[in-house]
Amino acid sequence: MMIMKLMFWMMMVVMGVATGADGDKGSDHDAGSHRRLCDLLQAAIKKWEVVKNENKEGPLHKALEKTIFGKEGGGKELEKLRRGLPEDYHTGANGQRANWCGKLYSSEERVVLVRWPGHSAPHDLMCLCTRGENLWLTTTQRSGTDTLCGQDAKTLEDS
After folding, report:
1. Closest CA to 156 of 132, 120, 134, 131
2. How many Cα atoms occupy the beta-carbon half-sphere of 67 within 13 Å?
3. Spatial separation of the C-alpha atoms in residues 45 and 144, rounded to whole Å
4. Alpha-carbon distance 138 to 131, whole Å?
5. Deepest of 11, 38, 105, 147, by most Cβ within 10 A of its Cβ?
6. Measured between alpha carbons, how far is 149 from 12 in angstroms, rounded to an integer?
């Protein structure tokens, strides 16, 4: 009897996993993480609008620049950032997402790596919203049933 109950529960788990993996229904990958990172970026930009012309050497000014632009002194680039992705994102780090999203920052590699995990909130959004180690958001084809960070394939290709 115990073996039958165990087999029943194992079968239920297998059916549940198989049902959850059904590609026809699609799924929203990284939706929660995306929302939290977007909220952080929106809060940083809102605060940036208040402090951008104040104490440019202060720690808050520098931290917000780093969060939004990935560098100090990038404050003049907000409108440029709103208009679209920098050109190097369209080439996708020589086709290897792992070059920008997988390698941890180290001071020895800074000359080689243009961006790295934690470079900026917009960069981390790009890494979060891209599937696979060697794929890149603007250079990949998707089935159209799944969404990634709340967006379908067409929207992501048009960005």
Report:
1. 131
2. 18
3. 31
4. 11
5. 147
6. 30
- Between CA 150 and CA 31 the distance in angstroms is 6
CA angle 72, 55, 66 (to 5 degrees): 20
Distance CA 72, CA 56 (A): 10
For residue 47, name the pLDDT band (cuts at 50, 70, 90): very high
Q: Is the dihedral of CA 111, 116, 118, 122 positive or negative?
A: positive
Distance CA(76)–CA(79), nearest Å, equals 8
Please list the alpha-helical segments (H only) found in 25-152.
31-51, 59-69, 78-83, 87-95, 97-101, 121-128
Q: Are 151 and 126 in contact (CB under 8 A)?
A: no
pTM of the model: 0.59
